Amino acid sequence: MRKAGEGAPVDADTVFQLASVSKPIASTVVSGAVGTEGWTAPVAPNVPGFALKDPWVTSHVTVADLFSHRSGLPDHAGDLLEDLGYDRSYILSHLRYEPLAPFRASYAYTNFGLTAAAQAVADEKGVPWEKLAADTLYKPAGMNSTSSRFEDFAKASDRAWGHVKVGGVWKAEFVRDPDAQSPAGGVSSSARDMATWLRLQLGDGKLDGRQIIGADALERTHWPEAVSSPPHAPAGRTGFYGLGWNVSYDDEGRLRLSHTGAFAEGAHTNVTMLPGEQLGIVVLTNASPVGVADAVALDFFDIAQTGKISRDWIPLVNALYEQEANAGVSKTDYAHPPSGAAPAKAAGTYAGTYASGYYGRAEVVAGADGALTLRLGPKPQSYRLTHYDGDTFSFVTAGENAVGRTGVTFAPDGKSFTVEYLNAEGLGTFTRG
Q1: Closest C-alpha among 118, 283, 124, 125 to residue 195
Q2: Any bridge partners for residue 356, and if so which?
Q3: What is the distance between the alpha carbons of residues 168 and 249, in angstroms, rounded to a whole number?
Q4: Is residue 411 part of a domain?
Q5: pLDDT tens digits for range 406-419
Q6: Spatial separation of the C-alpha atoms in residues 275 and 282, rounded to whole Å
Q7: Domain count across the chain
Q8: pTM score
Q9: What does the angle CA 328 – CA 114 – CA 421 come to, to the nearest 5 degrees?
Q10: How far apart are the first and last CA of the chain?
């Protein structure tokens, strides 16, 4: 159903959020906009304020580098800024603070790196990305229920609400607005429209006799560009990432293209294709990832190849999502202070205005009852601080990348504090202004 507790059924025209299945759609749009040669264009000249930490990398990083996640940016760089409410312009202009791994010799999945590349293409064409996507792909292909604007999804009368599991029950608790990373995760579409796009992919860019996207340009997106998963055993298989696609080869050596999309706040999608067999599937769901969308696709290809399902895929895939979700969870149990915990200083000692070059302004406010509240983001999000031990407090994180309770530790001199979950790349320290 579209929304738990309501009876409206899902049909072929129900609009779903695609999450990261937006990436191969974005690469289709870029192919149509720049052909085969535009992928090698540098990004920086076309995106105001965009830079990476190394000036040489800034001047050389291309659209293809960022679409294939080989720029050197850390994994999911910029995502936490989006959680705090910063817009695309702010996030792209602050990627310069992120430490870089070796350029074109390392792989790390980055929504906002890809977004910067797509933005560069749109800026060079002189139109917003959302319009470029519509004019290049959605309208010519007749994908009338597809959009790269959250507003269009939100106002659709036939749309699927995102669901998360609360106390063992699926509920429509959140509404995810992914406009900041629209090229990477902001597309919404229907089963009917996605089937049209799948036909275009399998038809070398052609639909019903009309060439929508150039065949050579589309094929360019199917090449392996970066090693995303090295083999971990002598007989292991290398995984690659192309231009918006996971690229691999099956036991018969056939090209296999795939991508999964997942919003912890309520979306799970999958597209998988064997272009040489003219076979593909798109799976759309409106629940946080528990393995179902990927399992349906894996079952489909099992049946196509052998006539039967080879295994129960859901536990295997779900375990991967659980592992990913738990990756950022603190090893400290902040909900249970240690015995003999040192007392905090007076609340006013910590109160004040602080700032981080990356995360912007922060404010610590002392209430009349002595409780502390931390305010973060451009439209401040408020988090009540709970004392843990000495100068360390905690709060419950929120947003797509929430990790449960995280620590906030004030320096002994009171001049700064560090937020644990914001500090993975050493950027989570705020200094008193």
Answers
A1: 283
A2: 360
A3: 38
A4: yes
A5: 999 999 999 999 99
A6: 14
A7: 2
A8: 0.96
A9: 20
A10: 51
